[in-house]
């Protein structure tokens, strides 16, 4: 793409196709709920399944989520991919393709996830609290590792990491 050099506000943008690129993935009649790229693979959730897709289009089913619809949020720490679907959290370990539902002290109804300072950080439906995992381990959560967003007394809906800062979005 390129921006028109005329200097006007709201300038026009031209988009050009890249020669040689073709569509690779087809999800059929069901929309992709979320996708993540790591190394030579693309990981995506379609209906209630987590799939791994290689560059040549070969697909491997890695696991099953508890939900069939709605968007999922995904992020990785270099060795694990964390997925939240509004009901539960899941961890995929890249080296072994082991896929597990996060248990233990992990709260119910996670709405978003990010990664900051070696920890996964999640928000949960209906609360102003956010929780964080053990260092570099999305399978380990302590019930006491949480804080409450206090500047506004509303429920959190999204968390992102931006330039080393945790950004919390409320209702």
Question: Averaging pLDDT over every residue, what do you get?
Answer: 89
Shape: globular
Class per helix and strand makeup: mainly beta
- The number of strands is 16
The low-confidence runs, each spanning 5 or more residues with pLDDT under 50, are none
Give the strand order of the largest sheet, numbering strands 1, 2, ... along the chain: 3-4-5-6
**Radius of gyration over alpha carbons?**
19 Å
Largest sheet, in brief, is: 4 strands, antiparallel
What percent of residues adopt helix (DSSP H or I)? under 10%
Strand content: over 45%
Instruction: Please give the count of helices.
Output: 0
H/E order of the elements?
Answer: EEEEEEEEEEEEEEEE
The separation of the N and C termini measures 35 Å
Give a written overview of the molecule.
By secondary structure, the protein is mainly beta. The chain has no helices and 16 strands. The strands form five sheets. It has a four-stranded antiparallel beta sheet, with no helix packed on it. It has a four-stranded antiparallel beta sheet with strand order 7-8-9-10, with no helix packed on it. A four-stranded antiparallel beta sheet has the order 11-12-13-14, with no helix packed on it. Strand 3 and strand 4 form a beta hairpin. It starts with a strand and ends with a strand. The model has no long low-confidence stretch (mean pLDDT 89).
């Amino acid at each position: 793409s390129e921006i028109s050099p005329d200097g006007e506000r709201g300038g026009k943008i031209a988009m050009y196709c890249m020669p040689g690129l073709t569509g690779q993935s087809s999800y059929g009649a069901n929309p992709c709920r979320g996708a993540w790229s790591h190394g030579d693979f693309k990981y995506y959730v379609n209906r209630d399944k987590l799939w791994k897709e290689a560059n040549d289009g070969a697909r491997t089913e890695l696991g099953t989520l508890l939900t069939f619809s709605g968007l999922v949020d995904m992020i990785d720490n270099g060795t694990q991919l964390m997925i939240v679907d509004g009901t539960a959290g899941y961890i995929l370990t890249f080296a072994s393709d082991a896929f597990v539902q996060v248990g233990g002290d992990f709260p119910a109804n996670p709405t978003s996830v990010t990664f900051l300072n070696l920890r996964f950080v999640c928000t949960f439906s209906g609360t102003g609290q956010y929780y964080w995992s053990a260092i570099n381990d999305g399978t380990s959560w302590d019930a006491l590792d949480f804080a409450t967003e206090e500047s506004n007394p509303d429920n959190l809906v999204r968390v992102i990491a931006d330039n080393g800062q945790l950004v919390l979005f409320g209702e």
